[in-house]
Amino acid sequence: MVALTTPVKSEGQRQRPRADRGPSGHTVARPGIGWALPAALFFTLFAIVPLVLVAVLSFASWNGLEAPRFAGLDNWTGLLHDPVMIKSLWLSVLLTGLGVVTQTPLSILLGVWAAGRQRNRAVLSAIFFVPLLLSATAISVLWRALLDPNFGVPAQARWLFGDGNLLGSRTGAISVLVLVATWQFTPFHALIYQGAARAVPEVLYQAAAIDGAGRVRRFFHITLPQLRNSIITSVILMVVGGLTTFDTVLILTQGGPGTDTSISAYYMYQKAFREFDFGQGSAIALLLVVVATVISLIVVRISGYDKMAGTKEGM
């Protein structure tokens, strides 16, 4: 009788990783670090270097003409005791939160709806995505004309808008900023959800239909869980975009009425380019970077996004 034995693999053979193979069966080598050098160089020159210069300038006093002078922590202590700065930071967080609350459900519903393959949905989606083709400046000018209290829509419907000066009160101005941001950025986030919804395996919906699940139940028990990663990504983009919004406030409200819409990015512009205090302007800019980074990390941490493993690693 011949004993059948299995060859024992050595330690090195057991730990040797399997080679990645392409569709044709040939070995596919992972991209080398040279592929990342152009992007890394671009990011270093136009992101890291300016950020370092702003950080250095936040500890200096500079009016843009004379040589910068080291000021220690004067710019930072000045911000801590500046009531307008504290208010502007709170307004930035408020507008960002309102943007997330309004844009997220609208984007999900429109994105999932647009994921359908019917011809009428494709046409309506193309029309709805028109704001993506416009710049923020053009959109702000458009809405400023539409909301003009003398010649715009409020002037023609005073029974609904009262005196028509929506930008003349704090509540009205903030509501207009949220409305314009929702109209401008919802198509972008809906596009993210549209692609994610089309990537959901059809077999999940077929199995749910066999079990008798209706459309609403399939949406909450299949579509939403499958969109989790996209929701986290979209929220992070909203947070970063909301905290750095500037041109819309500059054109629509100019920080008014008074300082009721003077968000941190606009206040940075006032300090640097109107009062020529580039030291404090740099401190505000650096503070915005820190706040946006911290909030994004909190979102990632709470959602558990940092613990998720990709399935396309190395490709």
UniProtKB/TrEMBL annotation:
Lineage top rank: taxon: Bacteria
Ranges of residues in domain ABC transmembrane type-1: 89-299
Mode of membrane association: Multi-pass membrane protein
Principal cellular location given in the protein's record: membrane
Region (Disordered): 1-26
Keywords, alphabetical: Cell membrane, Membrane, Transmembrane, Transmembrane helix, Transport
Biased composition, class Basic and acidic residues, residue ranges: 11-23
Any Pfam family hit: BPD_transp_1
InterPro entries: ABC_transporter_permease, MetI-like, MetI-like_sf
One GO cellular component term noted in the UniProt record for this chain: plasma membrane
Localisation per UniProt entry: Cell membrane
Transmembrane segments: 40-62, 89-115, 122-146, 166-185, 231-252, 283-302
One GO biological process term: transmembrane transport
Family assignment from sequence similarity: Belongs to the binding-protein-dependent transport system permease family.
Name of the protein in question: Sugar ABC transporter permease
Native source species: Streptomyces corynorhini
Lineage of the organism: Bacteria, Bacillati, Actinomycetota, Actinomycetes, Kitasatosporales
